[in-house]
Hints:
With about 160 residues, this protein is mainly α. It is built from nine helices and no strands.
Amino acid sequence: MSASGLDVFDRTLQTTHVWLNELMDSLGSDRQAAWHVLGAVLHALRDRLPPGLAAHLGAQLPLLVRGLYYDQWHPRSKPIRLRSARQFLDEVGKGLGNIRPVDTQDATRAVFQLLNHTLDPGQVQNVREALSERVRGLWPANAEDAKRAENTEGALRHGS
């Protein structure tokens, strides 16, 4: 029997815990910080996508995470365009202001890696392609891109 009486609630809660556990493992953080990281990165991403693509992405998220994703969303006819990876990371950082310090690059990379292996690959590719090239550089598509992203991170941390 279902713990809540509704299988859909049990499934979304279980899936959300799996997602948060992965973020906790990646970041060495607690569950509350992982939840804030997930929200901050998803909000920064959502606001940079055309509304239709943002909705398609939201439809692929677990029900509970979908609520976080859409929280305080005011769709614009045109997405916010940030050209640099640093600007994107600054936006993520704004969403992390009320928790213990978390490296925004690590947080962003952890959420993007989570999306890479939990969402439809075609959807991930569409979302990545909608971002500027520099922001897309934060989101590795595969192991080779992950290595390049680590090099980019090092350059960003050292002021390049």
